[in-house]
Amino acid sequence: LTPLLPHLDRRNRGMRTRLGCLSHKSDSYNDFTAILPDKPNRALKRLSTEEATRWADSFDVLLSHKYGLAAFRAFLKTEFSEENLEFWLACEDFKKTRSAAKLASKAQRIFEEFIDVQAPREVNIDFQTRELTRRNMQEPSLTCFDQAQGKVHSLMEKDSYPRFLRSKIYTDLLSQTQRRLS
User: Fold this and answer.
1) 74-103: pLDDT as tens digits
2) Phi and psi dihedrals of 63, rounded to 5?
3) What's the structural domain count of the chain?
4) Which key words are in the record (predicted)?
5) Model's pTM, two decimal places?
6) Measured distance CA(50)–CA(173) in Å, rounded
7) What is the chain's mean pLDDT, rounded?
8) 111 within some domain
9) Residue 20 domain-assigned?
10) What is the pLDDT of residues 115-150, one digit of tens each?
11) Alpha-helical regions (H) of the chain
């Protein structure tokens, strides 16, 4: 039973996080302090309407902008699907791993948190992708999550991203940047 305790503790933390989010879900942000990193008021002043408008050019433009990423994360929280972005970001970080010693442990952590069946923040991927990733874990490499990450990226791009662009979070943010100009 003792070896199971850390695993159960991780699952409980994930569940507490999900349940804790229930109380503050909203599709509107009039106060952007919750979504913008660093000093939100200064960040909002530095964010131009042009930058925020460019987020609509492509999903990758949105992901490459730190405030776009923060706004998209806040939106995903309203849909209870932030695990998709967190997995994608964990994979991006994983690909930068240069230490062979850390590679296997980081891969295991990502697999247990996002890929494994009943993972605390399980992403929505098909059985074949899950099984391929499980096989890749036998000899972890920098590319072991590529297919799963691609599927999650595609899901966010085709599903969540268009809804984000229509969301009150995004339209309110654009309005605030435009009001600053007047």
Assistant:
1) 999 999 999 999 999 999 999 999 998 899
2) -65, -25
3) 1
4) Cell membrane, Cell projection, Membrane, Nucleus, Signal transduction inhibitor
5) 0.77
6) 12
7) 83
8) yes
9) no
10) 999 999 999 999 999 999 999 999 999 999 999 999
11) 5-22, 40-46, 49-54, 59-64, 66-78, 82-94, 100-110, 127-136, 146-155, 161-166, 168-181
Q: Are 125 and 148 in contact (CB under 8 A)?
A: yes
- What is the DSSP secondary structure assignment for residue 113, as one 8-state letter? I
Token look-up 């849909």 returns 79
Kindly state whether residue 37 falls inside one of the protein's structural domains: no
172 token code pair: 């309110």
CA dist 68 and 108 (Å) reads 29
C-alpha angle 73-59-50 in degrees, rounded to nearest 5: 90
Which amino acid is present at 164?
A: F
* Domain span at 117: 47-179
| CATH code of the domain in which 129 resides | 1.10.167.10
Question: What DSSP assignment string belongs to 14-55?
Answer: HHHHHHHHHTT--S--SSGGGTSSSSHHHHHHH--HHHHHHT
- Residue for token digits 């099984």? 131
Question: Cβ atoms within 10 A of the Cβ of 30, count?
Answer: 9
In which region does residue 65 sit, left (phi positive, over 0), alpha (psi from -120 to 50) or beta (all else)? beta
Please calculate the CA angle 30-168-65 and round it to the nearest 5 degrees. 85
Q: Note whether residue 152 is domain-resident.
A: yes
